[in-house]
Design goal:
By secondary structure, the chain is mainly alpha-helical. It contains 20 helices and 4 strands. The strands form 2 sheets. It has a two-stranded antiparallel ribbon with strand order 1-2. The longest helix has about 40 residues, at about 5-40.
């Protein structure tokens, strides 16, 4: 077998489980999305009402696709295509950084570069590996849509558009891995580009020109600056345009070639963006392992907190606007109540929906913080700490505590921002309480994922990242999208995000708060108990 074949086979063997989860999960979202559309928007009038509301409200277009007609297929693309493309982009980004800058940090790349494979071939193998993964994602997603009975041409184009967006971000991540000094820096740069381009796509759609029958939108020029915008401009099940998809593919291939070129001219462990110089001596604030955890995770926590603040202020400033739109289109209120599960007025429903999204953001922050413990162990830096009187149990406890506090910081930023939004709209005392209750409940739900990640770390250290992120993804799908996809109520209630307290009249319905607290306490105790007897598991 050729050197290239060996490298490609190694990558496929290493990633088969993670890629299976990403690809099958994306296809299942597409399949379940069709069931949700047919159940929630069974008639042409229902779909027209939602599209009319979307065209009248730029914020809806920020978080949905490009309106391209009222057929079931076109409406499905409007609902889920951005999220299919987002999953493909995340899969590709993590894959690219893991096999380039991640391997270089771990010392594996240097060993490969010393062989006849050289320094370019591993990056080329990673690019081909990513392209194969996106081809499989596109094919399986297309088959899932065809299985629902949708037209084959639109189904294939929808899957291909999502895969093409993944290829675009594969190139972005490969380039970021050359520019940045660490895998964390490369991942951060890629995610910031992903978030920025997702918002640019939304701005382009929101600033576009609606058709006379209010069923289609012609995007403004900013949408053409984003890979997500290119995916949506294919308009599956409507115009079925192929050219935007090739724009995304070409963009990804050009950036991949640029990354290979940069790889060939830089030294091992070097980067084109210089790292910030560190202090000559550590401050007194770093005199404990707990403070070290804060130092390692502070930057990412700040980023998540900014996202939480934006979510909080949107939750309260948009409630009045959605209330007016739903008065003209009752379907808007119905679907929001399905997602939020609240029993009060529409303002409470809107806050509940946004704070469910906030709980997911806070859970991601908590998981990223605790997963850092596994990264420290894999790189060998944890061993030096375990050899001191600190010990492994206290070391893990510090990561769990910081993870829980990080989730609380994200929630607190959202609550404060939400209160500011309430104050700017006249200061409704009931809405102040609704925001506080929703924030408290989601703080508990998000904290559960910190302790669950710690339990996985203690039991299956090498699977920590894969299992922890899969748990968040499943909880988000069941808790936020389950009602839209027509899943039974009991399945949605399996998600901590879906059973948090809500305001019920003059009181508070605690719903599943007590079992959430029980899981939080039991999970934390189990993680620390299991950690007491676990051996060091470095590498991989």
């Amino acid at each position: 077998m050729s050197r290239f074949g060996v490298l490609l086979r190694q990558r496929l063997r290493r990633d088969w489980l993670q890629l299976t989860l990403w690809i099958v999960g994306t296809a299942l979202m597409a399949f379940a999305g069709y069931a949700g559309v047919t159940q929630s928007y069974a008639t042409l009038a229902d779909r027209q009402n939602i599209l009319t509301a979307a065209l009248a409200n730029p914020v809806i277009l920020m978080f949905r696709g490009l309106p391209s007609g009222t057929s079931e297929g076109a409406f499905l693309a409007f609902e889920v295509l951005p999220w299919l493309a987002l999953l493909a982009a995340l899969m590709s980004s993590f894959l690219a950084v893991r096999h380039t800058r991640g391997d270089e940090e771990a010392g594996r790349s240097e060993l490969v570069w010393a062989t006849p494979a050289g320094r370019r071939l591993p990056t080329v193998a990673t690019a081909v590996h990513g392209i194969i993964a996106n081809l499989l994602l596109a094919a399986l997603t297309a088959l899932a849509l065809i299985a629902t009975g949708l037209p084959a041409a639109g189904s294939v184009l929808a899957g291909a558009a999502a895969g093409a967006c993944g290829v675009a971000f594969l190139g972005i991540a490969l380039l970021a891995a050359q520019l940045m000094r660490t895998s964390r820096g490369a991942n951060s740069l890629t995610i910031w580009v992903l978030v920025a381009t997702f918002l640019i796509r939304g701005i382009g759609n929101a600033a576009g020109t609606p058709s006379d029958d209010l069923s289609r939108m012609t995007s403004a020029w900013p949408a053409w600056l984003s890979p997500f915008g290119w995916a949506e401009q294919t308009r599956p099940f409507d115009a079925d345009l192929v050219a935007p998809m090739f724009l995304a593919l070409g963009f990804g291939l050009v950036l991949s070639a640029a990354a290979v070129g940069l790889q060939s001219v830089r030294d091992i462990d070097a980067s084109f963006v210089a790292e910030r110089r560190g202090r000559a001596s550590a401050p007194a604030a770093l005199a404990s392992p707990h403070a070290l955890v804060w130092r390692l995770t502070a930057g990412s926590i700040v980023g998540w907190a900014v996202g939480g603040a934006i979510t909080g202020i949107l939750a309260t400033t948009l409630s009045g606007l959605v209330d007016r739109i739903s008065g003209e289109n009752p379907a808007v209120a119905d679907i929001l109540k399905k997602i939020g599960g609240a029993t009060g007025g529409l303002d409470e429903v809107v806050v509940t929906v946004f704070f469910t999204l906030l709980g997911i953001l806070a859970a991601c922050c908590a998981v990223q913080t605790v997963v850092r413990a596994r990264q420290e162990e894999a790189r060998g830096t944890a061993e030096a700490v375990w050899a001191t009187p600190v010990g492994r149990v206290r070391w893990l406890a510090d990561f769990v505590i910081v993870g829980v506090v990080a989730a609380l910081i994200v929630i607190a930023a959202a609550v404060v921002a939400g209160w500011i939004g309430v104050w700017s709209n006249g200061g409704d005392d009931t809405l102040y309480r609704i925001v506080a209750v929703a924030g408290l409940g989601q703080a508990v739900a998000a904290s559960i994922f910190a302790v669950l990640t710690a339990v996985v770390f203690a039991l299956l250290p090498r699977a920590t990242a894969a299992v922890a992120w899969s748990l968040v993804l499943l909880a988000a799908l069941f808790g936020m999208f389950g009602p839209l996809f027509g899943l039974p109520e009991w399945s949605a209630n399996l998600s901590p995000f879906a059973v948090t307290p809500v305001v019920d009249g003059s009181g508070v319905d605690v719903r599943g708060l007590w079992w959430l607290v029980l899981v939080l306490a039991a999970g934390g105790a189990s993680a620390l108990t299991l950690m007491r007897r676990r051996e060091l598991a470095p590498g991989a």
